[in-house]
Amino acid sequence: FSTKATMGDLANSAVEFYPKSQRGTGASSGSEANHAGDYGVTLEELRDLMELRGADAIQKVQENYGDTEGLCQRLKSSTNEGLSGNPADLERRRQAFGQNFIPPKKPKTFLQLVWEALQDVTLIILEIAAIISLALSFYQPPAEESEACGNVSAGAEDEGEAEAGWIEGAAILLSVICVVLVTAFNDWSKEKQFRGLQSRIEQEQRFAVVRNGNVIQIPVAEMVVGDIAQVKYGDLLPADGILIQGNDLKIDESSLTGESDHVRKSADKDPMLLSGTHVMEGSGRMLVTAVGVNSQTGIIFTLLGAGEGEEEKKEKKGKQQDGTVENNQNKAKKQDGAVAMEMQPLKSAEGGEVEEREKKKASVPKKEKSVLQGKLTKLAVQIGKAGLVMSAITVIILVLYFVIETFVIQGHAWIAECTPIYVQYFVKFFIIGVTVLVVAVPEGLPLAVTISLAYSVKKMMKDNNLVRHLDACETMGNATAICSDKTGTLTTNRMTVVQAYLGDQHFREIPDPGQINPKTLDMLVNAIAVNSAYTSKIMPPDTEGGLPKQVGNKTECGLLGFVLDLKRDYAPVREQIPEESLYKVYTFNSVRKSMSTVVQLPDGSFRLYSKGASEILLKKCSTILGAGGEPRTFRPRDRDEMVKKVIEPMACEGLRTICIAYRDLPGNPEPDWDNEADIVTDLTCIAVVGIEDPVRPEVPEAIRKCQRAGITVRMVTGDNINTARAIAAKCGIIQPGDDFLCLEGKEFNRRIRNEKGEIEQERIDKIWPKLRVLARSSPTDKHTLVKGIIDSTIMEQRQVVAVTGDGTNDGPALKKADVGFAMGIAGTDVAKEASDIILTDDNFSSIVKAVMWGRNVYDSISKFLQFQLTVNVVAVIVAFTGACITQDSPLKAVQMLWVNLIMDTFASLALATEPPTEALLLRKPYGRNNPLISLTMMKNILGHGVYQLTIIFTLLFVGEKIFNIDSGRNAPLHSPPSEHYTIIFNTFVLMQLFNEINARKIHGERNVFDGIFSNPIFCSIVLGTFGVQIVIVQFGGKPFSCAPLNVEQWLWCLFVGVGELLWGQVIATVPTSHLKCLKEAGHGPGTDEITDEDLAEDEEEIDHAERELRRGQILWFRGLNRIQTQMEVVSTFKRSGSFQGAVRRRSSVLSQLHDVTNISTPTHVVLSTANATGAPGRFLSLPFSINWIVSKVFTSLKRTSTYRHSSLYTQFLSLFLQLQ
């Protein structure tokens, strides 16, 4: 009841708020009346009607419209024919009742994004420094005092030069603006792409409606009020409506009401269907009564989603409303919370605290960071810290040097008039420091990730992968296991009957109609035609000579095709028994594994037709039609023989076996239809058919690729185990001679559950590594398997699992998996909603493409990192040492910003858009804890760093001699740019450009030009950067601190740049294994660095065993403490004051402390063998006092939140274990 009330309130409050949206598309109240005249019902009435449920709703319909048929007539629609489909009529309906479209939240404007980009701390610091620099540059001290200020301002003889002091400040501001605009533009295009993706996903969703008597599929946005829509299993309802006719319809309304039980709907008891709810079973037809913002989902969306803008307006109004909306919002939120709570089973028996954490989790919707993002964030923070330290030291050294030089050595006094000049110097030093920081902080990292992901997502569309969550693409590169469906993914999902068992005869191919008894044939045709969804049909082929088109459920189409092959037609039977006249339908679901339909015969009795999985249905058969078309008894032993001789041979050939049966029921007394067990039993078997679903031709090769790439493919299917095994062998999932398991769902459950029926992780761990096929599995089994593999800790790497699914019931498994793939064609809306990637062609080989793209993203980021870090290391060291030795950074602020632009924005574009190659599939997955920067990459970074530093320092200190030019060192403030420093800058940039080509390979390959022309973006960026560099050097002048260079100097710069490529070959020759000193960097967060708060969030990541272990240790220590106290007391009495013994023992304990090896992670303590084998009773004689002190320290350490970091804690822990 409460939920009804809430929904009602929500809707009402929405009406108060949105007087405009009530009137369709903002029509005035006058035209509202006209529309009401057009249709015998207003938008208002329909909205009020949709707020009712169950009996109230039926009563209201009967009072106002007579019945649903009456409402249908008022809406000028027909229950059988639907709408006419006339565009003018559809437009009128949209005017009157609104469109089926919920306007999305407004995207951020470009200016907002600019403002966000400006929030970057380093940029703000730079802006401030630049403004101060600008302000000061306009101050000119009187000529006579400038002498007194020392040689500070000497060198600026030229008036023009002195006046150009403002240029540097202005140039910095300009380059900051550039950086901001580029960042904002990238964010904006990312947002735009994402919206494009969303709209594409929305356009993909189509729905079946009846127009002009024909069933057609239309995009959801085109549905209007008055449409007759066909609802079936797995649909996500796109609009509100009233059920006209339904078969066994069950709806999951939890998304609206928070009640997880499925609600049974029927035209006479509860006909209200709401948008946003899921059809879990059955089928039916509904009359659409509310669309878009007027539907139940729309009302809530307008309140919550779009309500953000409204909230602000409301606050301005001064809270005129009485707060009903706020209450309702809270109620709604609470319910959502409840759903979240229901869906998350408690993780362990820790009771209270877990619930607390769960609550915390439910209340904070935390988007889990992907593995890559986690590693990158951590790396960026580390680099940033290092940069901060370097820049601080740079500034301090520069300031100290200047102060000592001017005031101590030259002995000048600080004069008031000179203050601006001195301050100008300090600002210059500050700017140099900030520039070091800017170059050190790799703000290009997030950009590279975004570009790389966005680019991949765009390209993956072409490879039939529609990515719904960006990080899924990158996670896919780490996948170690794929659990795939069989039907439609590994197979073509084009079913054809190829064998049949009819009238005591096993036909190996389709029999001639003459070979079958006419009575049996009639019964078979009727059973197939009536007992299948009327939406399943066989249509003529699209092209001449092609295969007939199968529409609807593929298994049913296979059976209908069988009827056509027997030279009969199913259409006349369906015309004779239209869908409305079906008396009762038990639709197919994953529990029943069968479908049954009841029709009333002319004499008033009933006949039930049933079809389903053969081993399940045959158990319910008590008779079978013999050769003469007469039923004969069918005993269990006949059944066993049939399974052996017919079903197993069919299954071993990879056929799905379907049994078709019927039963006659008396008309008087009418059977109790709700008691399904009594009705679908005692059947008469008509036939068993073997349906072939051929393996897709490209699948075996795709699976071979996966296995080569270190990915295990498992098949999880609802089919018979023999069929599954046969198909798995055809696909190459199992190979003869391998050690593998093929289990049925029942057996799987028996093996993983303990006596109490609870699932145990250890039991799953025994099974999953060898399991390759899980047959006859329920959706729960699939979820259990996926969860078991993900939570398992027996491998050194945590498994990353991808799952494919198409059915409504696959939702939980798709959500649980690291990456969920839903089928774009056969998949239900529910499955698509739960997935991360949609396979638009339902093909397994597209998954392999996804793996390739995922690995490519990872590699692109690594390439970019390798390049970026080389630049960072070199630029920071050059600026730092240059500043310390020559009091002026060889690379000026503006030049640094240009370098920053090259390496961040352009390089991320160039390196993040490398297309993937097949070679990516030849190596094993990286795994979750592998470092981002491998040893090879570290070798490259340091190797190239050494080369570049050597060159630059050579140029800096002896460059003027080599080129025979003036030295640029120790130049006074505002002096003109020198050729010397320009050569350094130019060489530096050219080395980066050529190193960018080196960075294309990160696994130590020799040929760095391999496939370079297949990436036009890369080529154009490298050439473009080179072009801009020429312009900057030749015409940059004062703002860029550049003096034009002659051809000879340019050639030398180029020569040194090309040297990078040769040097790269030298580095590649050095084997990585010989460089023991190298360390990897950019690991995932380690266990020893997890703080208490993180622990609460990362519940899933840290395995439970480890937590249990910690808790176990504490208990163990407490127990020990007690025993020891008692032993202590006893032994003290015995010894009565042997003081020396105690002292001796104390010293031995201290010496042992030295033998304990100290490990940073508290859970693993290594004891030195020398003491581990000490006397067994040793700890009992320890003096109680030490033990007591240790335990006190231990507990106090444990209380402090940082105890995991403290090595003290570790030592105490090791000491403690020693004492044991």
From TrEMBL:
Residues 310-366 are annotated as: Disordered. It is found in: Cell membrane; Membrane. Keywords: ATP-binding, Calcium, Calcium transport, Calmodulin-binding, Cell membrane, Coiled coil, Ion transport, Magnesium, Membrane, Metal-binding, Nucleotide-binding, Phosphoprotein, Translocase, Transmembrane, Transmembrane helix, Transport. It catalyses: Ca(2+)(in) + ATP + H2O = Ca(2+)(out) + ADP + phosphate + H(+). GO terms for cellular component: glutamatergic synapse; plasma membrane. InterPro entries: ATP_Ca_trans_C, ATPase_P-typ_cation-transptr_C, ATPase_P-typ_cation-transptr_N, ATPase_P-typ_cyto_dom_N, ATPase_P-typ_P_site, ATPase_P-typ_TM_dom_sf, ATPase_P-typ_transduc_dom_A_sf, ATPase_P-type_domA. Pfam families: ATP_Ca_trans_C, Cation_ATPase, Cation_ATPase_C, Cation_ATPase_N, E1-E2_ATPase, Hydrolase_3. Residues 1088-1115 form a coiled coil. It is an enzyme of class 7 (translocase). Residues 321-330 have a biased composition (Polar residues). GO terms for molecular function: ATP binding; ATP hydrolysis activity; calmodulin binding; metal ion binding; P-type calcium transporter activity; PDZ domain binding. The chain crosses the membrane at residues 113-136, 166-185, 388-409, 429-455, 941-959, 1017-1037. It is a multi-pass membrane protein. The keyword Metal-binding applies. Residues 311-320, 354-366 have a biased composition (Basic and acidic residues). Its main location: membrane. Residues 62-138 form the Cation-transporting P-type ATPase N-terminal domain. Its EC number is 7.2.2.10. One of its GO terms (biological process) is regulation of cytosolic calcium ion concentration. Belongs to the cation transport ATPase (P-type) (TC 3.A.3) family. Type IIB subfamily. Catalyzes the hydrolysis of ATP coupled with the transport of calcium. This is Calcium-transporting ATPase.
